Fold this protein.
Amino acid sequence: MIRLKVNGASRQFDGDPDMPLLWYLRDLLDLTGTKFSCGMGLCGACTVHVEGKAARACVTPMKSVSGKSVVTIEGLSKDGTHPLQLAWKQCAVAQCGYCQPGQIMQAAALLREKPKPTDAEIDSAMQGNICRCGTYQRIRQAIKMAAGVKA
Amino acid sequence: MMREQNVRMVSRRGFLETMFSAGAMVLGVQILPEEAQGAVSWQPSVYLGFEPSGTVVIVAHRSEMGTGIRTALPMVLADELEADWKQVRIEQAIGDAKYGSQNTDGSCSIRDFYVAMRDAGASARLMLERAAAAKWNVPASECKAQSHQVVHAKSGQKAGFGELVALAAKQSVPAKSELVYKTPAEFRYVGKDVPVVDLDGLVTGSAVFGYDAKAPGMLYASIERSPVFGGQLKSYDDSETKKVKGVVATATIDPFKPPHGFQALGGVAVLAENSWAAMQGRKKLKVNWEPGPNASWESGALKQALLEAARKPQKVVRNVGNVEAEFARAAKTFEAEYYVPMLAHAAMEPPAAVAEFKNGKVTAWAPTQNPQAVQDAVSAALGIPKSDVICHVTLLGGGFGRKSKPDYVVEAALLSKQVGRPVKVIWSREEDIKFDYFHTVSAMYFKAATDAKGRPTAWLHRSVFPTIGSTFVAGATDAQDFELGMGLVDLPFDIPNHRAENGGVKNPVRIGWMRAVANIYHAFGIHSFVDELAHAAGRDRVEYLLDVIGSPRKIDLAAQGVKYWNNGQPLEKYPVDTGRLRRVIELAAEKSGWANKKSGQGRGWGIAAHRSFLTYVCAVVEVEVDAAGRVRIPRVDVAVDAGTIVHPDRVRAQFEGAAVFGASLALMGEITGAKGEVQQSNFHNYPVARIHEAPRMTHVHVVPSSELPAGVGEPGVPPIAPAIANAIFAATGKRIRELPVKRHKLA
Ligand code: FES
Ligand code: FES
């Protein structure tokens, strides 16, 4: 039995301990905001927070989150008012939107560590997150807006 | 089948023309998506309904894959209706021919439905105004709809849309000639950056994509397909698969019958209670394939075959003057070959679909660009009437043309029929890349003769590529008119002797259209070669390009004997206008500060301009090539003339995104094959541009225009690759004649 916290709520899981967290969230908990895209830790679409740090849920087995606290895009804020979510809306970042929960979760982890990131820090923190629609310049703009640093 | 596609395009146009020239025909059709029925008390159009409260329900019948179309078309209708956007609800249409074409590709949603939306809005507005006039016993001409109510200024009377709905429904439907349209100055929403309707869901994770769709009791299916296209299943052993916890069943899907079209590829499916179990079960499956004749495919050999074909005379598809005579006579001639590899779409959301077969009917939920194609393909595969296929359209996590081919929905429907439960088919990234409908590989040969100023007096462009037609006619090699009409036969250069030729070769994989399609390689070849000629002449690129295009004029391609597709639009409505092309070049040059840029020492600027999807686009790209040969793109300036614009911010976003898409294919995109199998599988070996590799800042400059609306989703892509290659030449002196750039040593 694996016990963990997801978005603050206590959960138990008694399935395959090798099952990636991604499928537990999506298929079993119905938290489909965390996306599947590559399944190999290459694209960041599945990014969640484990103990406050960004993690790729597609390569995070359930056994490794035993006793840990997981936050998904659904739990980032109560009502979509995390500064990044507000900035994301204001900059109209999303095109198709599929990569965006992962982008926002990655950016949130960045701002927790570096509240005023430089361009280089943004690039290095965000280069694991692919956006095929090509919204990168607005992602950078929105992160800076949320961080209150000059665009 | 490709013919059928053309027929469909023609009939779509015909349908719209009759529908809207008759005016009344569109109105009075009392159907909305199932879920809206009952709640709606008046449905003056297939696109429009009113609830008793006055809430306006607008049907979005085109698919949302990131362009904002689910917002933009309803905005047009709401605006013309004088509805208050806050009191508008959007319903996504199921697949149904009554909406006209729902095939959301070809960059034509606004172009084809702008007028339809205005007609629907203007008609209902007039009926509401007449209803108010009857109620107050005043002339209808004195009643005016304003922000969800009708106002009689003289008497100061006002009535909300909700109050008037019942009366309006009794009004006779106005003829199109009676409709009065708002002037641009009166627009409330058109031309404004209205937040997209899905905005909240996209940042909170609640937006539902195809991969997120669920039906009660469904199984998850992961499918093993032949690694070689068209391979046949010899045998399989699922004994280990069945031992995996959560696996419920395995099932086979019959192989397709040529031509493959949108049929399921065929294979062995593992059905399980969750995605992970299905994938684990797949790993334990032992499958034997008979690879068949396509196992001989080697992309290296195919490349040589294409290049060789391009060196020989091919079918003439445009001929002006006499290029051969001019080549023989001219003092100087130039030749060059270009090559663009096969590419995969790689939308972030891999294909997925949920389908339930029940009582002889299929209900599907799919991220599809074309729900009516889902109806057709599922109906053909299951042998049920098209009307018994209900296709709900989810949001799409990117489409780029891949998701207008509904093979993955067919798989879900076939499996659901076999197992008697709803089935969700999930594709992995590996499957998405290996079993794509690929953007075709292409080779081009150019030859030009020039005069004393280096200006071309003769121009030969040979383009050889396997055709998309092979998806619809088995073994087809002749290019389709639409492929030829994407840059090959419609080149708007002022050159007295001009010939275009096309040749075809078989490519034993599935081929399909990808964002901008044949424009990608044609624009790359054309604008690379122009750049080479300008360099040889020692002339400024912008000045040279404008000179080659020549004076502002409308090019009469028919008079040159060219059969030109023009995106299915008449040339009288959408001419090939060199004046508009010149203007975007001048604008991009001005905004990028071209005149003051000095290329060299690892920094360079390149330019390319291309008309596609009836839109004129010019890109100026700045590159930096460092000592290690790494290419960075600090800035792109894109000038766009797409005619009338509905949503300026989403238009800018499309061109920003197209610059990234273009950079991906220029710098790193390449699909290869060996022994018949695709060699790439995921983002490590089929990379796409990441944040540090993409253009750092793309500035989009839109030409203000009241011309007819044209395309926006695709036309930003074609100029990017040649502009990047030209900028690299300007920076380093190294000419890129083969994509991707990563294959070349630039250090
Ligand atoms: S799906 Fe996890 S990194 Fe791509
Ligand atoms: S917005 Fe579509 S993939 Fe990022």
